[in-house]
Amino acid sequence: MNTEELQVAAFEIILNSGNARAIVHEAFDAMRQGDYDLAETKLDQANEEFLKAHQSQTELLQEYAGGTEIKVEIIMVHAQDHLMTTMTLREVALEMLELYKKLDKK
């Protein structure tokens, strides 16, 4: 895999995880407004963006498993960091959604 292909994959991961992050923040806003259905929809939409990012990541892993040498560049490290922190943010949002719902019942 050449440098350009690796950079394209990294930017796809960054793009899709960035989209997911923005959507998670929209879910947080919906939670604060008490619109839990919208928050759930937004978190589902964020997950769809993660699936796109994971596709790019999986393709790289398949290349590597097939014996292709992949030179790790800083942009790929950044892409992976971006993806993982955004995935964690979504997990926290899912927990917060349940807490918001629980507090509203009281």
TrEMBL record:
PROSITE patterns: PTS_EIIA_TYPE_3 (PS51095). The active site is at H78 (tele-phosphohistidine intermediate). Pfam families: PTS_IIA. InterPro entries: PTS_IIA_lac/cel, PTS_IIA_lac/cel_sf. Binds 1 Mg(2+) ion per trimer. PANTHER family: PTS SYSTEM N,N'-DIACETYLCHITOBIOSE-SPECIFIC EIIA COMPONENT. This is Cellobiose PTS family porter IIA component.
